[in-house]
C-alpha cells in the first residue's frame, strides 16, 4: 500500500496548521498504544480514498509531548480535522472507518473549495 500521509515534527505541525488552506486530518499517535496500531490501517485506507480532498498527517507524540499539552490530547490516537487553520473536529480513541468516512464526507460537502 502506498503511504499517503506524512510524518510531522512539532514545528512542522505548527506551520501546517497555521498555513493549511485545504482540509486536513492530523493523527496524533504513540508507539505503545494499541489504538494507534488499530487506527493506522483505517487512516491509510481513507488517505488513499480521499487524498484529492484532504491532506493527511501523522505526529508521533513521544518526541512531541508539548503538543499534547497545547491541544489537550489525553487519549491515543487522537485525530484533528482541520479546515483553513481551524480545528473543526477532534476525535479521541478508536473510530470506525465508516464513521470517520462520514465525518470526512461532511467536511468535504461543506467546503466550497471542493
Automatic annotation (TrEMBL):
<keyword id="KW-0676">Redox-active center</keyword>
<dbReference type="Pfam" id="PF00085">
    <property type="entry name" value="Thioredoxin"/>
</dbReference>
<dbReference type="InterPro" id="IPR036249">
    <property type="entry name" value="Thioredoxin-like_sf"/>
</dbReference>
<feature type="domain" description="Thioredoxin">
    <location>
        <begin position="7"/>
        <end position="105"/>
    </location>
</feature>
<keyword id="KW-0813">Transport</keyword>
<protein>
    <recommendedName>
        <fullName>Thioredoxin</fullName>
    </recommendedName>
</protein>
<keyword id="KW-0249">Electron transport</keyword>
<dbReference type="InterPro" id="IPR013766">
    <property type="entry name" value="Thioredoxin_domain"/>
</dbReference>
<comment type="similarity">
    <text>Belongs to the thioredoxin family.</text>
</comment>
<dbReference type="InterPro" id="IPR005746">
    <property type="entry name" value="Thioredoxin"/>
</dbReference>
<keyword id="KW-1015">Disulfide bond</keyword>
Amino acid at each position: 500500500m502506498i503511504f499517503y500521509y506524512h510524518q510531522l515534527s512539532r514545528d512542522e505541525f505548527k506551520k501546517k496548521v497555521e498555513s493549511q488552506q485545504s482540509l486536513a486530518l492530523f493523527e496524533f499517535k504513540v508507539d505503545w498504544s494499541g489504538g494507534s496500531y488499530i487506527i493506522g490501517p483505517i487512516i491509510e485506507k481513507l488517505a488513499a480514498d480521499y487524498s484529492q480532498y484532504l491532506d493527511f498527517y501523522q505526529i508521533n507524540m513521544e518526541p512531541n509531548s508539548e503538543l499534547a499539552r497545547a491541544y489537550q490530547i489525553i487519549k491515543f490516537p487522537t485525530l484533528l480535522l482541520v479546515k483553513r487553520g481551524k480545528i473543526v473536529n477532534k476525535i479521541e480513541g478508536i473510530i470506525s472507518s465508516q464513521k470517520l468516512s462520514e465525518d470526512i464526507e461532511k467536511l468535504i460537502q461543506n467546503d466550497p473549495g471542493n
